[in-house]
Amino acid sequence: MERLADFELIKPEVAKEPTEYYNKLRSGCPVSHTDTFGGFWLMSRYQDVYEALLDPVTYSSSLNGISIPKIPQPPVICLEQDEPEHRKFRKPMQAWFTVARMRKFEPQVREIVTNCLDQFAAEGRGDLALSLAQPVPPLVVARLLGLPEADWPWFRERDVTALRLTREGDNTGAAAAIADLHEYVRERLNERRKQPTDDLLSEIAALEIDGMPITDDDAVAMALLTLNAAHDTTVAGIGGLLYHLARNQNVQDQVTADQSLVESAVDEALRIATPILGQGRTATEDLSLEGVEVPKGDQVMLLLGSANRDPSRFPSPDEFRLDRPRNQHVSFGAGIHRCVGAPLAKLEMQVVLEEVLRRLPNLRIDDEDAVSVEYNVAVCTFTSLPAAWDLAPGGSA
């Protein structure tokens, strides 16, 4: 067994371009151990990862949670529950994020994306991470839940702080930021109970679980799950889409000429720039994987990003291709824990792609050396994405 000296995805330069690291894992020892964050196993091949995602009995989400390192908060509803508890909370959430419901929400998403583009498109260059990838998802989820858009800078600061401090091992500071978020959501839910409105937060406040009114703690947990899941990972997804779009003029040309390729382009961006690089599970029994013995009770990180670059499943895995048949990437997971908010995330990415192609022609990276990413508890987010594009005659976009 190869013991890795470091979990290299926490290095910004590796998180930005993990190809070499993933290749080393898959070809060297596809189930490896690292001492980082107290020690855990890395699973890197597609078939192993996919089978683990489909086996929640052997790979538990509840025993130690799914975050490595563990975020100092109560277990996350749905994500960190096994059956039968998981099913009770997932069922209503599935109804909130159906494709049909998201389709009705599309005009509001497009309005938000258009408003963001209006702020900078006519300049001919700008930071797409700061101007588009980071603001769109929180504005969308604020609209969906019925939260004031003015609160989002405060919310994002605490959310990012909690994740960063968790990664750095400062559980006291992370716990304080998380406590602020819980208190904020609890106050908003209490307001909705007194005066319901036509938004998702009111639906959560009025929810019944097993025929009984949802508890305050569970309502807060569901609202925070929606906030975080629709925020952090989609920021990462849009950033990855824009980065690879700006590096591939042929993709821009193809999708501009044939709008039916929009969904394929989004799926390929999700595959090649996986927003959540890995998810944690706990072995409920002794396992023998790829010739390696994993003891019962050990944590295993399912490297979704590496699985999505596995050449045994995706030929030419480091190329952005629109012609992949059945692009069965695992960016949203698989099985009972597949991301319930996937329809919303894909809707946002599709609208961003359509509007960027329309408003920012000939998009390109302005300064590759200035592109930067941050790894926070498995989510890889672009923090700087300088780009340039052509302007229409007269300087408008």
Question: How are the SSEs placed, and which strands pair?
Answer:
Layout: E1 3-4, H1 12-16, H2 19-28, E2 31-34, E3 40-43, H3 46-53, E4 59-60, H4 85-96, H5 99-118, E5 125-127, H6 128-133, H7 136-145, H8 152-168, H9 171-194, H10 200-205, E6 208-209, E7 212-213, H11 216-229, H12 232-246, H13 249-257, H14 262-272, E8 279-283, E9 287-289, E10 292-294, E11 299-302, H15 304-307, H16 342-359, E12 364-365, E13 372-376, E14 379-384, E15 386-388
Parallel strand pairs: 1-2, 3-11
Antiparallel strand pairs: 2-3, 4-8, 5-15, 6-7, 8-11, 9-10, 12-15, 13-14
Q: What does this molecule look like?
A:
With 397 residues, this protein is of the alpha+beta class. The chain has one domain (3-388): Orthogonal Bundle (Cytochrome p450), CATH 1.10.630. It contains 16 helices and 15 strands. The chain has helices at 12-16, 19-28, 46-53, 85-96, 99-118, 128-133, 136-145, 152-168, 171-194, 200-205, 216-229, 232-246, 249-257, 262-272, 304-307, 342-359; strands spanning 3-4, 31-34, 40-43, 59-60, 125-127, 208-209, 212-213, 279-283, 287-289, 292-294, 299-302, 364-365, 372-376, 379-384, 386-388. The chain has a 6-stranded mixed sheet with strand order 1-2-3-11-8-4, with helices on one face. The longest helix has 24 residues, at 171-194.
Unreliable residue runs: none
CATH class type: Mainly Alpha
Helix content: 40-55%
Architecture, according to CATH? Answer: Orthogonal Bundle
Number of helical regions? 16
The radius of gyration over CA amounts to 21 Å
Spatial strand order of the main sheet: 1-2-3-11-8-4
| Overall strand count | 15
N-to-C span: 55 Å
Biggest sheet layout: 6 strands, mixed
